[in-house]
Amino acid sequence: MQYTENQQKAINHLDGNLQIIACAGSGKTQVLAEHIVNILKIKGNADIGPANIVAFTFTEKAAGELKDRIHTLCREQLGTDFGLAEMFVGTIHGFCLNLLQTYQYRFLKYTVLNEVQQRLLIDRHSKESGLSDLTTHDGKPLERWKDSRLYQKVLSIVREAQVDEAALGNHPVRQALAKYQALLERKRYLDYSTILTGAVKALIEDQVL
After folding, report:
1. What's the rounded Cα separation, in Å, for the pair 71 and 33?
2. pTM
3. Residue ranges per domain, the chain?
4. What is the pLDDT of residue 207?
5. For 5-86, which CATH class?
């Protein structure tokens, strides 16, 4: 396959950070697959193998396509795709969940909620989830079945963004979040944000690997 000059530069870039910005259908997946195989080809003698590579994708469908291309290119260029099962190719949520369930066994009993299931949980337990503790900009209390989508966004921002904890102070959202997290723990649920923040916390506290 013929690559453009910039695509070839991306494929050949082996050390340091690399950012690829391109429109849909421009060949990013193919370039990424070639990039990974090139690492295995050139860095293989430096004890860098499939187990040392993590490739994040946005969806599981994209992960499947990327895996297929990596396997095909490995067979063509390396003569084998042996050992590729040790490489993680998937979503960041999938990686973090796998990390938690591998090293923190209590999470094996937890159920993962998608966004729809999370919203139903909030609506059905509006007081326990902290929903009814918050108000809109005009002072009206958040209502179940009506404002739960907004509450989901608030929860996601507070947990995943770089929020100034000191500036947040004793804002009601802090108490609401504490209620919501207690509800998740009691029900043994994990939502997408909890999976990410839980994995990061475990890494920072050196509880895994």
Report:
1. 9
2. 0.84
3. 5-86, 106-204
4. 66
5. alpha beta
